[in-house]
Amino acid sequence: MTTRNRRHFIRNLTLGSLAGLLGTQVQARTVTPREMEGPYYPITPQKDKDADLTQVAGKIGKAKGTVIEIFGQVFDNDGHALEDVTVDLWQANSFGRYHHPHDRSDAPIDEHFQAWAIIQTKAQGHFRFKTVFPGAYPLNASQQRTPHIHLKISKKGYHSLLTQMYFPDHPLNQSDGLFNSKTAVEQTLMTAKKTTAANQYRYDIVLQKV
């Protein structure tokens, strides 16, 4: 190998190694879009706020509706997974009613549905919870809100995030005012992904560093 060829070989090898290293680095992510809190953030104290919303501690019985599992990870906008993030979540029951004194709809109350959870992310930002598929709730006589789950996500050193998670391909998405006020990219970021497992969804969250 000539001196010139050897230099080219070493230069290409170095560039290739750098490219490989860069390829293994975390990649920047788009921050999860914000959304309004809604009128039914829980105000009734409850002790049971664990990751299984399908039953209430101290009661015999299970929540009515289709049981689903939601899992994901929380990242920062540089792509680093975040441990010990607080994920505060609440939703309507399978009939479309919130466990809230101001929800006066005619939909039934499900006393076996936990309705509210506050959980922490584990190693590599992982979180997981079990719930029931939320029902649509009425806005007025002719409109319903598409099924969704509310989330407040917080960690010291990051901007707190208030958002709503939507479900893929639900027919009410097309007529939901809040969902349709978002761009196509924002809708994608706010919509869970169906997995190959039955009744299981993945939803990743991205926080903005302060």
TrEMBL record:
Keywords: Dioxygenase, Oxidoreductase, Signal. InterPro entries: 3_4-PCD, Intradiol_dOase_C, Intradiol_dOase_core, Intradiol_RC_Dioxygenase, TAT_signal. It comes from the Bacteria. Residues 70-98 form the Intradiol ring-cleavage dioxygenases domain. This is Intradiol ring-cleavage dioxygenases domain-containing protein. Belongs to the intradiol ring-cleavage dioxygenase family. It comes from Pseudoalteromonas luteoviolacea CPMOR-1. It holds the Pfam family Dioxygenase_C. Gene3D superfamilies: Aromatic compound dioxygenase. Coiled coil: none annotated.
